[in-house]
Fold this sequence. Notes:
This protein is mainly beta. 4% of the residues lie in helices and 45% in strands. A hairpin with a 4-residue loop joins strand 6 and strand 7. Bound molecules: (2R,3S,4R,5S)-2-(hydroxymethyl)piperidine-3,4,5-triol (DGJ).
Amino acid sequence: MKWVRGLHLLAVAxxxxxxxxxxxxxxxxxxxxxxxxxLIQAHAGSWLRYGPWLYWYGEDKTxxxxxxxxxxxxxxxxxxxxxxxxxxxxGTSPIAAESNLERPKxxxxxxxxxxxxxxxxxxPDHYGLAEAAVAVADRPEGPFRWLKNFxxxxxxxxxxxxxxxxxGRAYFISAARHNLDLHVYRLSSDYLDLEAQVSxxxxxxxxxxxxxxxxxxxxxxxxxxxxxxxxxQAMYATAPSLETPxxxxxxxxxxxxETTFQGQGAFAFVDGEHILMGLDRWWGHELGNSRYMILPxxxxxxxxxxxxxxxxxxxxxxxxxxxxxxxxxxxxxLGAFHSNRFLRRDSDGKLMQSAKDGAMDSVxxxxxxxxxxxxxxxxxxxxxxxxxSHALVMMAKRExxxxxxxxxxxxxxxxxxxxxxRLSGLSLDVQGASGEExxxxxxxxxHDGKHQKWYMVPFExxxxxxxxxxxxxxxxxS
Length: 478
Ligand code: DGJ
Protein backbone atom coordinates (compact mmCIF):
# COMPACT_ATOMS: atom_id res chain seq x y z
CA MET A 1 0.00 0.00 0.00
CA LYS A 2 1.58 3.16 -1.18
CA TRP A 3 -0.30 5.32 1.30
CA VAL A 4 0.90 3.20 4.21
CA ARG A 5 4.50 3.44 3.01
CA GLY A 6 3.99 7.17 2.53
CA LEU A 7 2.66 7.46 6.09
CA HIS A 8 5.68 5.65 7.43
CA LEU A 9 8.14 7.79 5.48
CA LEU A 10 6.35 10.91 6.53
CA ALA A 11 6.52 9.95 10.21
CA VAL A 12 10.30 9.51 9.92
CA ALA A 13 10.62 12.76 8.01
CA UNK A 14 8.55 14.58 10.63
CA UNK A 15 10.92 13.46 13.38
CA UNK A 16 13.90 14.77 11.45
CA UNK A 17 11.98 17.90 10.82
CA UNK A 18 10.76 18.74 14.27
CA UNK A 19 12.59 22.06 14.34
CA UNK A 20 10.73 23.62 11.37
CA UNK A 21 7.39 23.17 12.83
CA UNK A 22 7.70 25.27 15.92
CA UNK A 23 5.26 25.61 18.80
CA UNK A 24 3.57 28.44 16.93
CA UNK A 25 3.27 26.60 13.62
CA UNK A 26 4.04 28.33 10.34
CA UNK A 27 4.77 32.02 10.12
CA UNK A 28 3.20 33.86 7.21
CA UNK A 29 5.86 35.67 5.22
CA UNK A 30 8.79 33.65 6.62
CA UNK A 31 10.76 31.17 4.51
CA UNK A 32 8.95 27.84 4.35
CA UNK A 33 10.86 24.58 3.93
CA UNK A 34 9.87 21.08 2.93
CA UNK A 35 10.90 17.93 4.81
CA UNK A 36 14.24 17.91 2.92
CA UNK A 37 15.11 21.41 4.17
CA UNK A 38 14.46 22.86 0.70
CA LEU A 39 12.74 26.18 0.27
CA ILE A 40 9.18 25.46 -0.85
CA GLN A 41 8.80 26.59 -4.46
CA ALA A 42 5.07 26.49 -5.13
CA HIS A 43 4.13 30.03 -6.10
CA ALA A 44 0.73 31.07 -7.49
CA GLY A 45 -0.30 27.51 -6.79
CA SER A 46 -3.24 25.43 -5.71
CA TRP A 47 -4.11 22.75 -3.17
CA LEU A 48 -5.88 19.52 -4.07
CA ARG A 49 -7.20 16.87 -1.68
CA TYR A 50 -6.67 13.29 -2.92
CA GLY A 51 -7.18 10.45 -0.48
CA PRO A 52 -5.55 11.35 2.81
CA TRP A 53 -3.06 13.62 1.06
CA LEU A 54 -3.12 17.29 0.48
CA TYR A 55 -1.20 18.18 -2.69
CA TRP A 56 0.29 21.60 -3.34
CA TYR A 57 1.24 22.50 -6.92
CA GLY A 58 2.97 25.74 -7.81
CA GLU A 59 5.56 27.58 -9.83
CA ASP A 60 9.20 26.84 -9.05
CA LYS A 61 10.64 30.34 -9.28
CA THR A 62 14.19 29.44 -8.21
CA UNK A 63 15.32 30.85 -11.56
CA UNK A 64 12.67 33.55 -11.63
CA UNK A 65 11.11 34.25 -15.02
CA UNK A 66 10.83 32.29 -17.27
CA UNK A 67 9.36 29.71 -14.94
CA UNK A 68 9.66 26.30 -16.56
CA UNK A 69 9.03 23.90 -13.71
CA UNK A 70 5.90 23.17 -11.73
CA UNK A 71 6.54 21.55 -8.38
CA UNK A 72 4.43 19.26 -6.30
CA UNK A 73 4.42 18.82 -2.52
CA UNK A 74 2.17 16.68 -0.37
CA UNK A 75 1.16 16.64 3.23
CA UNK A 76 -0.88 14.39 5.47
CA UNK A 77 -1.25 16.75 8.36
CA UNK A 78 -1.23 20.15 6.66
CA UNK A 79 1.91 21.04 8.60
CA UNK A 80 4.78 19.09 7.09
CA UNK A 81 5.22 19.18 3.31
CA UNK A 82 7.25 16.56 1.52
CA UNK A 83 8.46 17.16 -2.02
CA UNK A 84 6.97 14.95 -4.71
CA UNK A 85 9.31 16.46 -7.27
CA UNK A 86 8.67 18.29 -10.50
CA UNK A 87 5.13 17.62 -11.65
CA UNK A 88 5.75 19.29 -15.00
CA UNK A 89 9.11 20.34 -16.32
CA UNK A 90 10.41 22.09 -19.35
CA GLY A 91 12.62 19.28 -20.67
CA THR A 92 9.69 16.91 -21.12
CA SER A 93 8.00 19.01 -23.76
CA PRO A 94 9.41 21.34 -26.38
CA ILE A 95 6.47 23.61 -25.79
CA ALA A 96 7.03 23.85 -22.04
CA ALA A 97 10.70 24.59 -22.70
CA GLU A 98 9.71 27.58 -24.80
CA SER A 99 7.38 28.87 -22.15
CA ASN A 100 7.00 30.87 -19.02
CA LEU A 101 4.46 28.92 -16.98
CA GLU A 102 2.24 30.54 -14.37
CA ARG A 103 -0.64 29.78 -11.99
CA PRO A 104 -0.88 25.97 -12.27
CA LYS A 105 -4.23 24.65 -11.01
CA UNK A 106 -5.07 20.96 -10.82
CA UNK A 107 -8.38 19.10 -10.69
CA UNK A 108 -9.02 15.39 -10.29
CA UNK A 109 -11.58 13.91 -12.68
CA UNK A 110 -13.33 11.06 -10.88
CA UNK A 111 -14.67 9.58 -14.16
CA UNK A 112 -11.44 9.45 -16.16
CA UNK A 113 -9.23 9.16 -13.04
CA UNK A 114 -6.94 11.76 -14.54
CA UNK A 115 -5.31 14.73 -12.90
CA UNK A 116 -5.76 17.74 -15.13
CA UNK A 117 -3.56 20.82 -14.89
CA UNK A 118 -4.43 24.15 -16.48
CA UNK A 119 -1.86 26.90 -16.65
CA UNK A 120 -1.13 30.33 -18.04
CA UNK A 121 1.51 30.09 -20.74
CA UNK A 122 3.70 32.94 -22.00
CA UNK A 123 6.92 33.08 -24.03
CA PRO A 124 10.15 33.02 -22.00
CA ASP A 125 10.83 36.70 -22.64
CA HIS A 126 7.50 38.53 -23.06
CA TYR A 127 3.84 38.44 -22.03
CA GLY A 128 2.43 38.69 -25.55
CA LEU A 129 1.36 35.06 -26.10
CA ALA A 130 -1.42 35.16 -23.48
CA GLU A 131 -2.36 31.47 -23.82
CA ALA A 132 -3.99 28.79 -21.71
CA ALA A 133 -2.27 25.42 -21.48
CA VAL A 134 -3.43 21.95 -20.44
CA ALA A 135 -1.42 19.00 -19.12
CA VAL A 136 -2.64 15.66 -17.80
CA ALA A 137 -1.35 12.92 -15.50
CA ASP A 138 -2.39 9.51 -14.22
CA ARG A 139 -1.00 10.16 -10.78
CA PRO A 140 -1.27 13.23 -8.56
CA GLU A 141 2.48 13.84 -8.49
CA GLY A 142 2.72 13.58 -12.28
CA PRO A 143 4.54 13.53 -14.56
CA PHE A 144 2.02 15.76 -16.32
CA ARG A 145 1.99 15.38 -20.12
CA TRP A 146 1.64 18.55 -22.14
CA LEU A 147 -1.59 18.37 -24.14
CA LYS A 148 -2.03 21.76 -25.74
CA ASN A 149 -1.71 25.48 -25.54
CA PHE A 150 -4.11 27.90 -27.16
CA UNK A 151 -6.07 31.14 -26.90
CA UNK A 152 -9.58 30.26 -25.69
CA UNK A 153 -11.94 30.90 -28.60
CA UNK A 154 -9.26 33.28 -29.87
CA UNK A 155 -9.20 35.42 -26.70
CA UNK A 156 -6.07 36.39 -24.80
CA UNK A 157 -5.77 34.40 -21.60
CA UNK A 158 -3.48 35.35 -18.71
CA UNK A 159 -3.98 34.97 -14.92
CA UNK A 160 -6.31 32.02 -14.49
CA UNK A 161 -7.87 29.52 -12.14
CA UNK A 162 -10.04 26.42 -12.17
CA UNK A 163 -13.19 25.72 -10.20
CA UNK A 164 -14.99 22.41 -9.78
CA UNK A 165 -18.55 22.57 -8.50
CA UNK A 166 -20.25 19.98 -6.31
CA UNK A 167 -21.77 18.30 -9.40
CA GLY A 168 -18.34 17.81 -10.96
CA ARG A 169 -18.85 20.58 -13.53
CA ALA A 170 -15.67 22.61 -13.91
CA TYR A 171 -14.78 26.09 -15.08
CA PHE A 172 -11.69 27.94 -16.27
CA ILE A 173 -11.59 31.64 -15.43
CA SER A 174 -8.95 33.82 -17.07
CA ALA A 175 -7.98 37.42 -17.69
CA ALA A 176 -8.65 38.43 -21.31
CA ARG A 177 -8.25 41.50 -23.57
CA HIS A 178 -4.88 42.65 -22.12
CA ASN A 179 -6.19 41.79 -18.62
CA LEU A 180 -9.09 44.25 -18.93
CA ASP A 181 -11.84 41.61 -18.67
CA LEU A 182 -12.25 38.31 -16.87
CA HIS A 183 -13.70 35.45 -18.93
CA VAL A 184 -15.51 32.46 -17.45
CA TYR A 185 -15.40 29.25 -19.53
CA ARG A 186 -17.16 25.94 -18.88
CA LEU A 187 -14.83 22.96 -19.32
CA SER A 188 -15.71 19.95 -21.43
CA SER A 189 -16.91 16.95 -19.45
CA ASP A 190 -13.37 15.43 -19.40
CA TYR A 191 -11.83 18.77 -18.27
CA LEU A 192 -9.36 18.64 -21.16
CA ASP A 193 -10.97 21.35 -23.26
CA LEU A 194 -13.29 24.32 -23.17
CA GLU A 195 -16.94 23.82 -24.00
CA ALA A 196 -18.16 27.41 -24.04
CA GLN A 197 -17.53 30.87 -22.76
CA VAL A 198 -20.29 31.59 -20.27
CA SER A 199 -19.61 35.21 -19.37
CA UNK A 200 -17.34 38.26 -19.39
CA UNK A 201 -17.01 39.69 -15.89
CA UNK A 202 -15.70 43.05 -14.60
CA UNK A 203 -15.26 44.31 -18.16
CA UNK A 204 -12.61 47.01 -18.39
CA UNK A 205 -11.77 46.72 -14.67
CA UNK A 206 -8.42 44.88 -14.99
CA UNK A 207 -8.95 42.17 -12.39
CA UNK A 208 -6.22 39.50 -12.05
CA UNK A 209 -5.33 36.47 -9.93
CA UNK A 210 -8.84 34.93 -9.79
CA UNK A 211 -9.70 32.68 -6.84
CA UNK A 212 -13.09 30.98 -6.58
CA UNK A 213 -14.82 29.35 -3.63
CA UNK A 214 -18.39 28.19 -3.12
CA UNK A 215 -20.10 28.51 0.25
CA UNK A 216 -23.73 27.86 1.13
CA UNK A 217 -24.86 28.01 -2.47
CA UNK A 218 -23.04 31.21 -3.32
CA UNK A 219 -19.94 31.65 -5.48
CA UNK A 220 -17.33 34.08 -4.18
CA UNK A 221 -14.90 35.27 -6.84
CA UNK A 222 -11.84 37.04 -5.44
CA UNK A 223 -9.46 38.98 -7.68
CA UNK A 224 -6.56 41.39 -7.37
CA UNK A 225 -5.89 44.53 -9.35
CA UNK A 226 -3.26 44.38 -12.10
CA UNK A 227 -0.01 45.92 -10.84
CA UNK A 228 2.61 43.37 -11.95
CA UNK A 229 4.34 41.99 -8.81
CA UNK A 230 3.20 44.79 -6.54
CA UNK A 231 0.48 44.09 -4.00
CA UNK A 232 -2.84 45.86 -4.28
CA GLN A 233 -6.37 45.70 -2.85
CA ALA A 234 -8.13 42.38 -3.40
CA MET A 235 -11.85 42.60 -4.22
CA TYR A 236 -14.61 40.03 -4.26
CA ALA A 237 -17.98 39.62 -5.93
CA THR A 238 -20.68 37.00 -5.50
CA ALA A 239 -23.26 35.22 -7.65
CA PRO A 240 -25.40 32.08 -7.32
CA SER A 241 -23.35 30.38 -10.04
CA LEU A 242 -20.34 30.92 -12.28
CA GLU A 243 -22.86 30.91 -15.14
CA THR A 244 -24.72 33.91 -13.70
CA PRO A 245 -24.74 36.74 -16.29
CA UNK A 246 -22.30 39.55 -15.51
CA UNK A 247 -25.02 42.09 -14.77
CA UNK A 248 -26.39 39.93 -11.96
CA UNK A 249 -23.16 39.63 -9.98
CA UNK A 250 -22.81 41.74 -6.83
CA UNK A 251 -20.57 44.80 -7.16
CA UNK A 252 -16.87 44.37 -6.32
CA UNK A 253 -16.14 44.89 -2.60
CA UNK A 254 -12.74 45.19 -0.92
CA UNK A 255 -11.21 42.22 0.86
CA UNK A 256 -8.44 42.61 3.45
CA UNK A 257 -6.28 45.73 3.54
CA GLU A 258 -5.29 48.06 0.70
CA THR A 259 -2.32 45.82 -0.12
CA THR A 260 -4.06 42.57 0.92
CA PHE A 261 -1.47 42.11 3.65
CA GLN A 262 1.18 42.52 0.93
CA GLY A 263 -0.27 39.50 -0.85
CA GLN A 264 -2.06 38.34 -3.99
CA GLY A 265 -4.54 35.46 -4.06
CA ALA A 266 -3.42 32.05 -5.34
CA PHE A 267 -6.19 29.66 -4.26
CA ALA A 268 -8.99 28.97 -1.82
CA PHE A 269 -9.36 25.62 -0.12
CA VAL A 270 -12.28 24.24 1.85
CA ASP A 271 -11.28 21.84 4.62
CA GLY A 272 -14.35 20.83 6.57
CA GLU A 273 -15.66 23.98 8.22
CA HIS A 274 -12.50 25.89 7.44
CA ILE A 275 -12.09 28.03 4.36
CA LEU A 276 -8.48 28.93 3.74
CA MET A 277 -6.98 31.33 1.29
CA GLY A 278 -3.45 30.85 -0.02
CA LEU A 279 -1.68 34.03 -1.08
CA ASP A 280 1.68 34.91 -2.59
CA ARG A 281 3.79 37.72 -1.27
CA TRP A 282 5.84 38.46 -4.36
CA TRP A 283 9.40 39.69 -4.13
CA GLY A 284 9.46 41.29 -7.56
CA HIS A 285 13.21 41.93 -7.30
CA GLU A 286 13.98 38.32 -6.38
CA LEU A 287 11.02 36.15 -7.32
CA GLY A 288 12.48 32.88 -6.03
CA ASN A 289 12.46 34.32 -2.54
CA SER A 290 8.76 35.25 -2.69
CA ARG A 291 6.77 34.21 0.36
CA TYR A 292 3.37 32.66 1.08
CA MET A 293 0.49 33.24 3.44
CA ILE A 294 -2.37 31.02 4.51
CA LEU A 295 -5.21 33.06 5.99
CA PRO A 296 -8.74 32.21 7.09
CA UNK A 297 -11.54 33.39 4.86
CA UNK A 298 -14.87 34.00 6.55
CA UNK A 299 -17.86 33.82 4.22
CA UNK A 300 -21.39 34.51 5.29
CA UNK A 301 -24.52 35.64 3.45
CA UNK A 302 -22.62 37.25 0.60
CA UNK A 303 -20.03 38.96 2.82
CA UNK A 304 -16.38 37.91 2.71
CA UNK A 305 -13.73 38.76 5.27
CA UNK A 306 -10.04 37.98 5.10
CA UNK A 307 -8.31 38.47 8.45
CA UNK A 308 -4.62 38.66 9.14
CA UNK A 309 -2.93 36.18 11.43
CA UNK A 310 0.84 35.96 11.65
CA UNK A 311 0.95 32.24 12.37
CA UNK A 312 -1.08 29.10 11.77
CA UNK A 313 -1.03 25.35 12.21
CA UNK A 314 -3.34 22.40 11.84
CA UNK A 315 -3.86 20.63 15.14
CA UNK A 316 -6.53 18.09 16.14
CA UNK A 317 -8.11 18.33 12.67
CA UNK A 318 -8.63 22.08 13.14
CA UNK A 319 -6.79 25.00 11.64
CA UNK A 320 -5.53 27.37 14.31
CA UNK A 321 -4.56 30.95 13.56
CA UNK A 322 -2.63 33.20 15.86
CA UNK A 323 -2.28 36.97 15.90
CA UNK A 324 1.04 38.59 16.61
CA UNK A 325 1.00 41.59 18.91
CA UNK A 326 4.17 43.45 19.82
CA UNK A 327 5.48 41.97 23.04
CA UNK A 328 8.63 42.06 25.11
CA UNK A 329 11.22 39.63 23.78
CA UNK A 330 9.52 39.04 20.41
CA UNK A 331 12.05 38.44 17.60
CA UNK A 332 10.91 39.84 14.30
CA UNK A 333 11.90 40.97 10.87
CA LEU A 334 10.44 44.24 9.62
CA GLY A 335 9.38 44.34 5.97
CA ALA A 336 8.80 47.60 4.08
CA PHE A 337 5.48 47.78 2.23
CA HIS A 338 6.87 49.29 -0.98
CA SER A 339 9.70 46.76 -1.43
CA ASN A 340 9.11 43.78 0.88
CA ARG A 341 12.77 44.16 1.87
CA PHE A 342 13.68 43.89 5.53
CA LEU A 343 15.25 46.46 7.85
CA ARG A 344 18.87 45.38 8.22
CA ARG A 345 22.04 46.65 9.83
CA ASP A 346 25.09 45.76 7.75
CA SER A 347 28.58 45.07 9.08
CA ASP A 348 29.50 48.77 8.75
CA GLY A 349 26.56 49.69 10.96
CA LYS A 350 24.54 51.15 8.05
CA LEU A 351 20.76 50.84 8.43
CA MET A 352 19.25 49.74 5.14
CA GLN A 353 16.52 47.73 3.49
CA SER A 354 17.68 44.34 2.27
CA ALA A 355 16.49 41.05 0.81
CA LYS A 356 19.38 39.27 2.53
CA ASP A 357 17.23 38.06 5.32
CA GLY A 358 18.93 34.79 6.23
CA ALA A 359 21.44 36.50 8.53
CA MET A 360 20.77 37.66 12.07
CA ASP A 361 21.43 41.27 11.13
CA SER A 362 17.85 41.61 9.90
CA VAL A 363 16.39 40.18 13.13
CA UNK A 364 15.22 42.60 15.82
CA UNK A 365 14.12 41.86 19.36
CA UNK A 366 11.33 44.06 20.66
CA UNK A 367 11.95 45.19 24.21
CA UNK A 368 9.42 47.06 26.31
CA UNK A 369 11.00 50.12 27.94
CA UNK A 370 10.16 51.58 31.31
CA UNK A 371 8.45 54.56 29.67
CA UNK A 372 6.14 52.23 27.73
CA UNK A 373 7.90 52.79 24.40
CA UNK A 374 9.60 50.01 22.44
CA UNK A 375 13.29 49.43 21.93
CA UNK A 376 14.58 47.53 18.88
CA UNK A 377 17.52 45.48 20.02
CA UNK A 378 20.22 43.70 18.03
CA UNK A 379 23.34 42.23 19.63
CA UNK A 380 22.94 44.31 22.79
CA UNK A 381 22.55 47.58 20.89
CA UNK A 382 19.44 49.63 20.24
CA UNK A 383 18.14 51.36 17.14
CA UNK A 384 18.03 55.10 17.67
CA UNK A 385 18.75 58.60 16.40
CA UNK A 386 19.92 61.86 17.92
CA UNK A 387 17.26 64.56 18.26
CA UNK A 388 18.39 66.74 15.36
CA SER A 389 19.38 63.93 13.01
CA HIS A 390 17.53 62.00 10.34
CA ALA A 391 20.21 59.29 10.44
CA LEU A 392 19.79 56.05 12.36
CA VAL A 393 22.51 54.63 14.56
CA MET A 394 22.86 51.78 17.01
CA MET A 395 23.11 52.98 20.62
CA ALA A 396 24.28 51.37 23.82
CA LYS A 397 21.48 52.28 26.26
CA ARG A 398 18.02 50.84 26.10
CA GLU A 399 16.47 53.53 28.33
CA UNK A 400 18.01 56.41 26.39
CA UNK A 401 15.29 58.80 25.09
CA UNK A 402 16.93 58.47 21.67
CA UNK A 403 16.07 54.75 21.42
CA UNK A 404 12.33 55.00 22.19
CA UNK A 405 9.92 53.95 19.45
CA UNK A 406 6.15 53.84 19.18
CA UNK A 407 4.61 51.15 16.98
CA UNK A 408 1.55 52.83 15.52
CA UNK A 409 -0.92 50.39 13.90
CA UNK A 410 -2.11 51.51 10.46
CA UNK A 411 -4.89 48.95 10.06
CA UNK A 412 -7.30 47.06 12.30
CA UNK A 413 -5.66 43.70 11.58
CA UNK A 414 -2.38 44.02 13.50
CA UNK A 415 -0.60 43.84 10.18
CA UNK A 416 0.98 47.19 9.26
CA UNK A 417 2.74 49.72 11.48
CA UNK A 418 4.46 53.05 11.30
CA UNK A 419 7.49 53.24 13.58
CA UNK A 420 7.63 56.65 15.23
CA UNK A 421 10.82 57.80 16.85
CA ARG A 422 9.64 59.51 20.05
CA LEU A 423 12.47 61.98 20.49
CA SER A 424 12.27 63.49 17.01
CA GLY A 425 8.63 62.72 16.20
CA LEU A 426 9.87 61.38 12.84
CA SER A 427 8.96 58.11 11.15
CA LEU A 428 11.13 55.15 10.07
CA ASP A 429 11.51 55.74 6.32
CA VAL A 430 13.26 54.14 3.35
CA GLN A 431 15.05 57.12 1.87
CA GLY A 432 13.68 58.40 -1.39
CA ALA A 433 11.14 55.54 -1.44
CA SER A 434 13.90 53.55 -3.12
CA GLY A 435 13.10 49.95 -4.01
CA GLU A 436 16.80 49.08 -4.36
CA GLU A 437 18.78 46.58 -2.38
CA UNK A 438 20.80 48.38 0.30
CA UNK A 439 18.85 51.68 0.16
CA UNK A 440 19.32 53.65 3.38
CA UNK A 441 16.68 53.63 6.05
CA UNK A 442 16.47 56.79 8.14
CA UNK A 443 13.90 59.12 9.69
CA UNK A 444 11.51 61.39 7.89
CA UNK A 445 8.41 63.47 8.60
CA UNK A 446 5.46 61.08 8.79
CA HIS A 447 3.30 60.71 5.72
CA ASP A 448 1.13 58.09 4.05
CA GLY A 449 3.82 56.63 1.74
CA LYS A 450 4.29 52.87 1.58
CA HIS A 451 8.00 53.29 2.33
CA GLN A 452 7.03 54.35 5.87
CA LYS A 453 4.79 51.33 6.41
CA TRP A 454 6.22 48.15 7.90
CA TYR A 455 4.99 44.67 8.75
CA MET A 456 6.39 42.19 11.24
CA VAL A 457 7.37 38.63 10.37
CA PRO A 458 8.12 36.34 13.32
CA PHE A 459 11.74 35.24 13.05
CA GLU A 460 12.24 31.58 12.11
CA UNK A 461 15.57 29.80 12.41
CA UNK A 462 17.07 28.55 9.14
CA UNK A 463 17.45 24.78 8.55
CA UNK A 464 20.61 23.14 9.80
CA UNK A 465 20.95 20.82 6.81
CA UNK A 466 21.14 21.84 3.18
CA UNK A 467 18.66 21.08 0.44
CA UNK A 468 19.53 18.10 -1.77
CA UNK A 469 17.10 18.72 -4.63
CA UNK A 470 16.66 22.43 -5.30
CA UNK A 471 17.13 23.27 -8.98
CA UNK A 472 20.20 25.42 -9.41
CA UNK A 473 19.87 29.09 -10.11
CA UNK A 474 20.17 32.23 -8.15
CA UNK A 475 17.38 34.37 -6.83
CA UNK A 476 15.11 34.70 -9.79
CA UNK A 477 14.73 38.00 -11.50
CA SER A 478 11.38 39.19 -12.77
C1 DGJ B 1 0.72 39.44 -11.61
C2 DGJ B 1 0.18 38.07 -11.87
O1 DGJ B 1 -0.85 37.83 -11.02
C3 DGJ B 1 1.29 37.07 -11.80
O2 DGJ B 1 0.80 35.78 -11.91
C4 DGJ B 1 2.23 37.44 -12.91
O3 DGJ B 1 1.59 37.23 -14.14
C5 DGJ B 1 2.69 38.87 -12.77
N1 DGJ B 1 1.56 39.77 -12.68
C6 DGJ B 1 3.56 39.29 -13.93
O4 DGJ B 1 3.86 40.65 -13.84
